[in-house]
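Appendix B, Record 12. Input sequence as logged:
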Amino acid sequence: MANESSTRLAILDDYAGVARQHFSRIPGLQIDEYPETLNPAKPEDLDNLAKRLEPYQILSTMRERTPLPAELMKRLPNLKLILNASARNASIDMKCASERGIVVCGTKGDVPTDPKELEQLPDLPPPKGHSSVVQHNWALTLALLSRIPQDDAALRADGGAWHSGLMAPVAGRTLGIVGLGKLGVGTAKVGVLAFDMKVIAWSENLTQEKANAAAEGAGLPKGTFKAVSKEELFRQSDVVSLHLVLSARSKGIVGSQELKKMKKTAIIVNTSRGPLIDEEALIDVLKAGTIRGAALDVYWEEPLPIDSPWRTASSWAKSEVVLSPHMGYVNEGTIHRWYQEQASNVTRWLKGEEIQNRMN
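Logged structural output:
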């Protein structure tokens, strides 16, 4: 707890400029914003981050945009409270935070019941059990298969452009889900109900029994999802969709061997985490044009560096490439609600009240 007049809060990585309006309702709080991400894995950025954040008692973070490893927290003697957006963040060293007496709290992103909080939100988060990541996953998939980015650009740039290519239907095709968790099941359910797709799935511990339970939990008949081997999934799928949590075990789980097994007409979609795929292997496949294309919302380094090869993909890729800047979870209702919850916890902390959604 700290006196309001002496408390400083740094907002990190709020690319959309949403957070300040929620924190500015707290009297006496000194607020600074740092929308440009620095990566503490780089020695120069670590030094700059330590100097930047040293004065602050409170940090507002957005998911894993700026990691908070022990080597950074140990250089922040004034830090007392870390506000995380969402209920988890693997890039915060929780052990170090606890050892240093730093409170880490998360957010639920649920629809508030307080009428005043409801009034402050410009839009509502998705209903419980739904995720905007699933929506965005399908938006990318359909944009690639229907050639929407390419045709939109052609029509705007060339007054005579018309039917510059052919779209690919998705109905009745095979959808391969890598990781049959909540988002994988949500994506698969859309494929089944909207497009009558055949769904096959793989993860290291997936069994047919678990696949049946996932289908029935989604209100679908037992057997709707078929558990297959990793090799079979990449050979059979027309759309490969990734839905794994990034870990030391899952990093690079899709490499050159898996990509080379894909059909020439198949696409791969990643709205999970960039490092699940071997970046160089994916670039090689797209340069060679051995698959139809890739739709990516996540990357190996974020924000995407200016000199990233993905920014010039139209000049080197023979396959089709559709890109978006990690927008899967960035819906208006959820982002505003996360910052609203963060601001509520700041008020509680300043008053010495119990913090909500504590993570350590």
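The first strand starts at residue 8 and ends at 12.
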